[in-house]
What does this fold into?
Amino acid sequence: MINLAAVATTPTLTGERIRLVPLGPEHAQALFESLDDPESARLTGTHQTFTREAIDAFCASRADQDDRLDWAIEDAVTGEYAGGLAVNDVDADNETAGFRIDLVEKYRGRGLGPEAIELMLRHLFEEVGVHRVGLEVYAFNPRAQRSYEKCGFVVEGRVRESLLWDGERVDTILMGLLRADWLARRKEGRADRR
It folds into this structure.
């Protein structure tokens, strides 16, 4: 059974190299800059452009949301914004959730994505009580797919030619992780290994 109180307030989660902190107004400038990165837009399939005012309003409204979790990923040493992670598809009836993650260019390829995902998974499976966590990744992002697989996600399907990016049709790969599989990985000691 889903613990909706564990979704109503976004906690701070601390790892070895990063911290997941509630996304707030103090992250607006860094988030705005990250959304302006063409590679980030491509990897996330984001066609939309954002104004600074819209980002300010979004960041200011996060504490008022009780049906999703929005984190800023911060460097544990410097406190610098390294990216964002959002759990935005919590389905209490089916005990499932979905998420998206993005890292700013400077922090890509350093293993911080899997660390952030493991922190989030621990919270979702142990505190929120979800049974399944799902995600979508575009076929032109194999590095992200490998990161998700490293965290235990398995490919469950493919939505063919679902994204049109610069004239190219790109497949969406559907991936998921069940609580039982995550617990088995933790028991084997793999979930905390990076």
